Amino acid sequence: MKVLFVLGIVVASLFAEVVYAAGDLTDAQVQAMAQKNGCMACHGVGNKIVGPAYKDVAAKYKGDKGAESKLIQKVRNGGSGVWGSMAMPAHPEMNKKDIKTLVRWILTLS
Questions:
Q1: Higher-scoring residue by pLDDT: 102, 10
Q2: Which domains does the chain have, with CATH numbers?
Q3: Are 31 and 88 a contacting pair, CB within 8 Å?
Q4: 6: confidence class by pLDDT, cuts 50, 70, 90
Q5: Number of C-beta neighbours around residue 20 at 10 A
Q6: Contacts by 92-100 with C-beta closer than 8 Å and gap 24+?
Q7: In Å, how far are 16, 48, 66, 83, 103 from 44, measured between CA atoms?
Q8: Which residues does 40 contact at the CB level (< 8 Å), separation at least 6?
């Protein structure tokens, strides 16, 4: 009986939606926010479009304690040279809370 209970919890946790501390948004809500802000025109979750895939960004910055602040600045101010010759445009109009939520979500991907 205990084994079934534990197994049930494990299975439920695998299918539960991930909720992020910054605003308590689900994966789907963060992706919708990224779409609304034009991010998905250049970035796919698992595939490169113009810019790198979000999963590649997460892998590159895995274990980097300063990754969140670096990426927040990159989204806000733009930049170039990290992922090739195509520059990332600045997004000064994007809400700071949305940027932080997006970056935190990206860094959870694997």
A1: 102
A2: 19-108 (1.10.760.10)
A3: no
A4: very low
A5: 17
A6: 94/37, 97/22, 97/23, 98/33, 98/37, 99/72, 99/75, 100/22, 100/68, 100/72
A7: 22, 6, 23, 14, 14
A8: 31, 34
30 exposed, middle or buried (CB, 10 Å; 0-12, 13-18, 19+)? Answer: buried
**Residue in this structure with the two tokens 């969140």, named with its chain if needed:** 68
97 to each of 26, 39, 49, how far by Cα in Å?
Answer: 15, 15, 25
Whose tokens are 């989204």? That residue is 75
pTM, rounded to two decimals: 0.77
Tokens standing for residue 16: 């539960």
